[in-house]
Specification:
Blueprint: H1 3-7, E1 15-20, E2 29-30, E3 33-34, E4 38-40, E5 52-58, E6 63-74, E7 80-86, E8 97-100, E9 108-110, E10 118-122, E11 141-143, H2 144-153, H3 156-163, E12 165-173, E13 179-184, H4 189-200, H5 206-215, E14 223-232, H6 237-251, H7 253-256
Parallel strand pairs: 1-5
Antiparallel strand pairs: 1-9, 2-3, 4-7, 5-6, 6-7, 6-8, 8-10, 11-14, 12-13, 12-14
């Protein structure tokens, strides 16, 4: 299913797509609409008063999610418009339906490109959510069940802050009290590393693999994930590993924990 097919069920003759990039979208919108009363558009022709503009928020360089739709209202300046919200059937999936486009991000897109926006997934509704909203890195303290919920539903409030930083984290085994210190420095930072735990339980860490093989997935229900330190994505991986080593020494996790190196 693609966006062109979805829009065939809508009662609008023309539409364009405005895709705000993953690093800036929250500067321009919230759930109520755009944060400014006017919108400047220098690309394309905007003479059709009935044209609908689909507002997308970037997730990665190739994926975005639908937020809402607007209609432009002319002002005295040709490239400046005010706007009003437009209701669509697609709003049932607002902020939940994710599209992937192989050719990647561009801000202004005509309806001719809608077939390139392929539905990748649909996140669960907010009322089904059990995890509390992200507030800051220091307050991140997740059970294994909460971690899985966040990753499986790709919650935006966790994805953005966790995917833009490298870091050092701790896993606490609630069955024994033993601790594991790890580092995240790959693609999508802490998010990418923790996503591996959500998928495998053990994250391919040797001692955790042994516990998984001996006890199964249920054993990890008492696990807790916390962030010890965040680091910028531009920092060399070697520096991240050095910080990880320092934390292992501080918490004695090689001698009395779950680290074996």
């Amino acid at each position: 299913m693609n966006l062109e097919q979805l829009m065939s069920f809508e009662d609008c003759k023309s539409y364009d797509i405005l895709w705000y990039g993953k690093d800036i979208y929250d500067l321009y919108m919230d759930d109520s609409g755009l944060l400014t009363t006017t919108l400047e558009l220098k690309q394309g022709k905007h003479n059709d008063p009935d044209r609908v503009y689909l507002i997308m928020a970037g997730i990665t360089g190739n994926t975005c999610r639908y937020r809402f739709a607007i209609r432009l209202i002319k002002t005295e300046t040709d490239t400046i418009f005010t706007w009003e919200r437009v209701k669509l059937n697609l709003d049932e999936y607002a902020n939940r339906i994710v599209f992937i486009r192989k050719t990647g991000f561009t801000f202004y897109n005509t309806s001719a490109t809608a077939r390139d926006f392929i539905v990748e997934e649909i996140w669960s509704k907010a009322e089904n959510r059990k995890v509390k909203p992200f507030t800051n890195y220091d307050d991140v303290e997740l059970s294994f069940a909460e971690l899985k919920e966040i990753m499986e539903n790709h919650y935006p409030d966790y994805y953005k802050p966790l995917s833009c930083v490298k870091g050092i984290y701790m896993i606490i085994d609630g069955n024994t009290g033993l601790q594991y210190v790890g580092s995240a420095y790959g693609e999508e930072g802490i998010w990418g590393r923790w996503n591996t735990y959500a998928a495998t339980c053990h994250g391919n860490d040797e001692e955790l693999v042994k516990l998984y093989e001996a006890n199964g997935e249920k054993y990890f229900d008492k696990y807790k994930f916390i962030i010890l330190q965040i680091l910028p994505m531009k920092i060399p991986d070697r520096d991240v590993i050095d910080r990880e080593t320092a934390y292992k020494k501080r918490f004695l996790t090689k001698d009395f924990g779950l680290n074996n190196n």
